[in-house]
Each structure stands twice: as structure tokens, then as C-alpha cells.
Amino acid sequence: MAENIESHLVEKRVFKPAKGFVKGARVKSLEQYRRMYRESITRPDKFWAREAGELVWERRWKSVLKWKVPFAQWFAGGKLNVSVNCLDRHLGGPTRNKAAILWEGEPGDKRALTFQQLHRDVCRFANVLKRNKIRKGDRVIIYLPTIPEAAIAMLACTRIGAVHSVVFGGFSADSIRDRIADCGAVAVITADGGYRRGAIVPLKKNVDDALHGGTSIKRVIVFRRAGNDIHIEEGRDVWWHRELEYVDAHCPAVAVDSEHPLYILYTSGSTGKPKGILHTTGGYLVGIYSTMKYVFDLRDEDVYWCTADIGWVTGHSYVVYGPLANGTTTLMYEGAPNWPEPDRFWRIIEEYGVNILYTAPTAIRAFIRWGDQWLKKHDLSSLRLLGSVGEPINPEAWMWYRDKVGGGRCPIVDTWWQTETGAIMITPLPGAIPTKPGSATLPFFGVDAAVVDEKGNEVSANVGGRLIIRQPWPSMLRSIYGDKERYKKQYWSEFKGRYLTGDGARRDKDGYFWIVGRIDDVLNVAGHRLGTSEIESALVSHPSVAEAAVVGRPDELKGQSVVAFVTVKGSVTVSTSLKTELREHVGIHIGAIAKPDEIRFAEALPKTRSGKIMRRLLKEVASGKTVTGDTTTLEDLSVLAKLSAEE
Ligand code: PRX
After folding, report:
1. How far is the CA of 415 from the centre of ligand 1 (A)?
2. Which among 333, 528, 326, 257 has a CA at the least distance from the CA of 418?
3. Which domains does the chain carry?
4. What is the pTM of this model?
5. Residues near ligand 1 with C-beta < 6 Å?
6. Per-residue pLDDT reduced to its tens digit, 308-347
7. What are the tens digits of pLDDT across the range 230-270?
8. Torsion sign (Cα): 587, 590, 591, 593
9. Pocket of ligand 1, candidates 264, 414, 503: which has the most ligand atoms within 8 Å of its Cβ, to mutate?
10. From the CA of 458, how far away is ligand 1's center (Å)?
């Protein structure tokens, strides 16, 4: 990206933390934040040793950080177990009988699990894993709805040192197959089906299709959730509930090295192949423990609800590990926000007395559209703190969230982070940092964030540039699974020794960060990262398609919508039914979220003389703008005229 990133947003409103909130807060003033931040940057060893010291270690670390660019080892020499920190460590006192998970299924079924019950369930299921010959270091795919068993399966893996890779329940069989192949998984944990807007998603059927023709998978453990008919492959598939009959609840935890892999989570990058982001144990746990505690300003009595699906990093860090590591009650909801009616979230908040709500701008925009009447039906006065994550939140949505959901009294933490960063990186601390609608404000402790130009020089206030991180942090990704070179190249090569986030941003005169969005070829659709080239590859794999280019178009509700420009093979005639077919085709190959919102057939795509598709031009065409940018490198100008004409 040669040109500077433009950012036109000027926002003057500032909201200081309310006195009542500050009184009970963990960090009470901007000065205190700055003091702690300074220490975390100048003496990271001291800062992070203190945070890590609040967790349980089987053996203490020898050094806090060993950093050989770009490979970090946090708490090297230390040994610990994640499930012990999320469960066992809370069993000695009153937390033992506190709800660890409050869960509501989409059809309205409910469950509550105390820390003790969850501990027991995790131990039993860990024994099921062992019984099924799953060992330390083995990779296990988890393809489940957002039900307690998803958390149980994740924690059971950690108990025995197995490495989980959760695949979002909306992904297709092909996506599962690719992920199994990439990480060489030996087992899949799934359910017969899951609920979505009243329908049953055939999870087990998708797994069967993914395994068709043979993979590295030896065992499939199936939880009965929806009761739909499924095929059980003898010798490969077993029922979760049957397996439990053979095990007891005693399962000693395996203490693993701090750098032992904890999980792999696939995310979109700018090439066609999803990247297996690798997170390890000690640093990750310390990072999410600490961010959870300070950013959500936790109190013992909190009911905390993060609405993310378990299949995304937010579901890992802030539905499961972050809250449980802190002994916090985490609420999980399986279904859609508008099922059976658009007040489902507000109903849940009222019923469970939710104190902290952490959701995504795309949901907030949908609520605005559905209308305030749905909120008015419910008492939301239990809320004391609101959070946002996943994409930039537009100031008007922020204001609506504050006024309508938070009743004007709840601070909003707009948290910027990524699958790769593992934990929140830029965020207000609600008792300390004044907020501005649309800004993620200031970096969290230990995060040395900066905005730089193409040469890597820091830009001055209010000038757009690339967002980078200049020092390693505990919860950072350690590599792309099985591909160290790609890890180096993608994140650490543009500015040597500095982490490239792939986002554009600016800082205002107060040092506040304003995130503009992705600068690489990655879209953010309803808070989900989608690689344009992944969607292009899916389109091109259709026999009628010659070439495809996918771009994003600003979308009021989803942030960005997917627009595909497609050229077809010589003999193919274009039609509306072909469009439908192509959309379905993308659905099958990637999942429904990646289906193009619009497909435009074109005779040719605009290319540079070197053959590169000029996406910048396509973006302008897609959003109905006249193409204003530089077209001097365009090989054939007439292509553009035709594209714009083809409405
Ligand atoms: O572009 C940023 C956007 O989401 C990207 C990370 O996506 P993913 O790895 O799927 O993780 C999403 C949940 C952490 C970022 O590169 N993003 C995330 N949070 C924000 C955001 N953009 C602006 N403001 C945020 N608060």
C-alpha cells in the first residue's frame, strides 16, 4: 500500500470514567495507568512476573522472556497446566460452589455448572480422551456448537496436554478437511447437530463428509445435542455419553512446559490458505488472565457474558480461558441474537442479571436496525460495563450502545486485538481511561504499539499509517503451525523485529488509537476475517469460472460485504442461476459467511501490465463510485469502462 491511509473521522466527544465506577476499579486514574504502563514497557520482566505469580505453576519459570526475533519464549523453564488454573485452583474456597458456566441453548434449555461440577466433567472427559488413545501433543479438532461441552472438550485437552483446534460450526466439510490435513489431527470431537435460528446444523454429517476418502483422523467422539439421525461409523465413531460410562472423575493434570502448544486456531490471511495460528501455554494464560482482570475490571460477584462463538479467538480467550482463569462466571448462549425474537439478548441479560456484556459492532448495528422497542421490554439495570470487539465501531453505534444498552452509566471498552495477539492489545481500562466513541484508546500493559509509514518511521499525530507492535507480549502467536517461514515473512519481515498487524490506524494528539481496518487483502465481514483470495480460489474451483476477484464494499450492517467480479470460461453463458450456483459453491467450500453478497460477471478484470488485478479500482466500482485513482498502470482502460457499465 503506497499511499497513506486516509482517516476522515473527527470525533470530539470524551467520556470520563464515572466517579462511582472509579471507586471500586482496579486501576483508578490515568496517572495510575500510565505508571503501570511505563513499568510494563521498561521492565516487562518485573511486570509480567508479578502477573504470572498470581497463577499456579507446577515449577516456576527460569526467565520471563527469551526473545530471538521473531521467536519468543515466555516463562521458559516453567511448568503449568491450564485446566488446573481454570478449575482446580478455585476449588479450595467459596468459588468452588460458584457458577463457572451459565448456559442457555437456542431452544431455551438451560444449564448451570459450578466450578466443582465443571472440574469433574473435565476430568471425566479427559479420561475419555485418554481411553481413546489421545496423548499429549496430539491435535484434536473440536467442531461443536457453543455448548458447555465445547469448553469441557477444550479444557479436557489442556488437562492431558493435547492441542485443540476448534473449527467454527458454520464452516463446511471442506474447511474441516483442510484443517485436519494441515495440523495432522488424530481425533474430532463433534455433536450430532447444533441449533441455528430454529434449524438443525448437521455437524456430524459435515464431519463425515470431511473424513470421506481418508484422513489422519482415527476417532470421532459425538455429543448428542440435537437428536437428529446420524451415521455412526463402527470402529471410528463413539458417543460421548457412552464413553463416560467407562471412566471415573479422577484425572491428574499433566504439567506441561510453558511453551507447550495449547491450541491452533485457523484464520484468514492474504494468501488462499488459512493460517494455523499457534498459541502456547504459559504466556497465553498470563496474557488473557491479566487482560480479563483489568479490562473488564472483574469483581467476584460478576456475571459476565461474551457473545462470541466458541469457534473464534474471542470465544477461546474471553468465553472460556479468561473468565475461568479468573474464577469468573461466564455465560454462554448457543444461538442467534434474533431467535425467536430480536430481544433474546436483552431477555438473557435480565434473566441472569448480567453485569458485563462483551459483543461485536455488527450485532450492535443489527440491534439498532431492529429497533429500541426490543430493549425497552427488559430491565437492563444489572449491566455495569460494556465491551466491543471484532471491527471498528462507528461512533453513532457506540453512542447507541452507551445510551440504550448501558443506560448512559456503563463505560464502554472498545478492545482491539487479533487471533494472532491472543489477548486484548489496545483498550480503555474502564476506571482509568476516558473514552472517545470509535477509539480503542490506549495500549494495554506491555503493548508497545505504534503507527508508522511505509519506511517504518512513526508518523505524527492524526496521520494514518500501519499499526505495528514493537515488543513481544506474552500471549503473542508463536508461529504459523508448520510454517515458520510464513510466520516470519507475514508478520516480522516488513519492519524487521516489529510485528505487523495488517491494520491501518492513526493516533490523535492524546495518543489515542483509531483503527481504520485491514490494509491487506482481508475482509472483515460481520466481525469475521475472510481472505479475499480464499473466496477467489473457491470461485475459480467452479468449472464455469475462469477468473475471479473479490473485494469488500462498505456495508451498514456487516461492516463489509463481499463483492465478486467473475469472468467465465469461453463456452459458458452467464445467468442468474449461475450466480446462485456460485454463491452455493462458495458456501460449500468455505462456509455460508463467505458467500458473495453480489456477483458481477465481467468480460475481463482490470490488471496492471504485470498481470496483478487492480483491486483498488474494483473496490471503487463495487461501491458505485467513479474511479478516481491513478489508472496509468492499467493495461486496458476499456475493461474499466465496461465494468462500471455492467450494473
Ligand atoms: O482489523 C482488526 C479487527 O479484526 C481484526 C482481527 O480479526 P480476528 O483475528 O478475527 O479477531 C477478531 C477478534 C479479536 C483486526 O486486525 N478488529 C478487531 N477488534 C477491533 C478491530 N478493529 C477495530 N476495532 C476493534 N476493537
Report:
1. 8
2. 528
3. 19-386+395-505 (3.40.50.12780), 522-645 (3.30.300.30)
4. 0.91
5. 267, 313-314, 388-392, 414-419, 440, 501-503, 515, 517-518, 524, 529
6. 999 999 999 999 999 999 999 999 999 999 999 999 999 9
7. 999 999 999 999 999 999 999 999 999 999 999 999 998 77
8. negative
9. 503
10. 22
